[in-house]
Amino acid sequence: MSEVTASTPSPAAPKKMDDIVALCRRRGFIFQSSEIYGGINGFWDYGPLGTALKRNLKNAWWNDVVERELIGPDGNSVDIVGVDCTIIMNPKTWVASGHVGGFNDPMVDCRESKQRYRADHLAVLGSTAAGSRLYAFVENDDEQRAAAVKALTKYEKRDALDQAVHILRPFMTISAEERARTMGPHAKEAGTLTEPRQFNLMFETNCGAVKDESSLAYLRPETAQGIFTNFWNVCDSTRVKVPFGIAQIGKAFRNEVTPRNFTFRSREFEQMEIEFFIRPDTANEWYKWWRDWRFSWWQKIGLAGANLILREHDRDELAHYAKEGAGTSDIEYRFPFTAPGFGELEGIAHRADFDLKAHATHCGKGDKMRYFDQEKNDRYFPHVIEPSAGADRGTLALLCEAYTPDPTRASGVYMNFTPRMAPVKAGVFPLVNKDGLPEIAERLYRDLRRKHSIEFDEKQSIGKRYARMDEAGTPYCITIDHDGASSGTATIRHRDTQAQDRVALDQIPMWLDERVS
RNA sequence: GCGGGUGUAGCUCAGUGGUAGAGUGUCACCUUGCCAAGGUGAAUGUCGAGGGUUCGAAUCCCUUCACCCGCUCCA
Q1: How many angstroms separate the CA of A382 from the C1' of B38?
Q2: What band does A66 get if pLDDT is binned at 50, 70 and 90?
Q3: Which residue in A82, A272, A357, A378 has the fewest CB atoms around it within 10 Å?
């Protein structure tokens, strides 16, 4: 960890994840997927309020990234176009990206040493004598092989050694009974190795009626490859010129070994990704600009406190595609379940030309697919700066950040979403359910609803209605009272302070527009 | 994947072998009228699931699922 940037040094509020999960369920933010059947590990559904919150987050991202003008480090407008690609792609995509191959292998865990080995790289050495110990070692590791031989000769009595027929076999071929008396390479006791297990993180499916090798397909484990494979299409069909970006919001799937921490590590999740294509010699300045702009964006939508940090990766934790280059950094949030540590919201990586080159090579056209830079009269594979954010993680961070315990108020808690992110922008209430107040309130409600998400409630006491809106995170509550009915005004209650303004009815639409847009 | 913990009403929980409960919330009506007020009434349970023991299981046993915590993993 070489660089940490925090906005303010204030300590994190003591929030309990269980309480946040309970509120999410109680108020309809997030439910367990297929809960009536006992749920399913790693999958979550959004309820009415959660769907609105997540949609607000995605809309804000799309709006700020693709639609609104953004000024880049060179003072020019940043050019970004959108795509929306399929979840299932030609399987060759995942060979080119490196997802098939490196992560498809059977692995063996050692319960004692906590080491993990490629099962097809392990071999065992031992004797055929009944019940004798076997010694596992990594085949191409001479040191381990020597250690295994030494351990074997030390373990077996000399006469047994003379008579015993020694075996040397791949670990993959031994039985469960033999495995139970096998010593792991780093273990002190026998029988600590698990059976070989596939750790393929990609979900598999079959495309077409026939289920065989030829129909095998994968659910995409990241949205990025849809962008890379469409790079040439976008160049040919639009008038984009490097530097430019392609943005996409979409679902991705990873068969995580251990889904954990509410929606933080789900097996089905949504990404908001930009692949920004640049000339290789401008990587540093674009990388820094994207990193800083993305950090300030998260702050702007409501993660402004000390719980948000920007963390530059150390060299040794860089991904295979980012070893050389401008760098990689994470925007991280201090979730209640990671505190005092942080969990990743977005990664900003300089992926160099790894992906475009890989696809050019695998599709067989190679250098012919280089980008032609008319201005410089130069051909090259553009480098890529990738800001890749998690929509579900972002939503979860907004929920955690907004959750504000307040024992002094009836609800005991309120959600202080920024108005732009709030699922409901305002509640409109008649103070009493008579004397013509409901009619006035309903007219105002219908007027405001033409542009915003508004809730109308005439039931029960006004305090109850305020309390419900506090838990939904609604920033404003507009109440028609008797004074207002006669003077053409209403009171507007501010969620965070509980203070009230009196505003003329005909001014309220504009008043609200200014604050929630 | 390993170890530990927890599953009973929307939520918080009580109930240790003998009729499934409380508070709170939700809904309706009355009343009141600016912060979950009061009154009356109502609805709501696969006691996580499956199996076993037993005359009888929310309760004991086995298996399994889900969630939480610590490891592991996170290309």
Answers
A1: 72
A2: very high
A3: A378
**Mean pLDDT score of chain A:** 85
**Cα A71 from chain centroid?**
26
CB A479 within 8 A of CB A490: yes
What secondary structure does DSSP assign to A138-194, as a single string?
A: ETT-HHHHHHHHHHHHHHS-HHHHHHPPEEEEEGGG--HHHHHTEEPTT-SSBS-BP
CA of A82 to C1' of B23 (A): 53
State the DSSP string of A481-515: -HHHHHHTEEEEEETTT--EEEEEGGGHHHHHHHH
What 3-state DSSP class applies to A432? Answer: coil
Residue A243, pLDDT > 90, answer yes
Give the ipTM of the model, two decimals please: 0.87
Q: How many residues does chain A have?
A: 517
**Following CA atoms A107, A108, A110, A113 in sequence, which dihedral angle do they give, to the nearest 10 degrees?**
-40
8 A C-beta contact, residue A300 and residue A70: no
Comparing CA positions, the residue from A136, A105, A134 lying closest to residue A120 is: A105
Return the nearest residue to B49, CA–C1'.
A38
The spacing between the Cα labelled CA in A70 and the C1' in B40, in angstroms, equals 61
pLDDT tens by residue, A400-417: 999 988 888 888 889 999
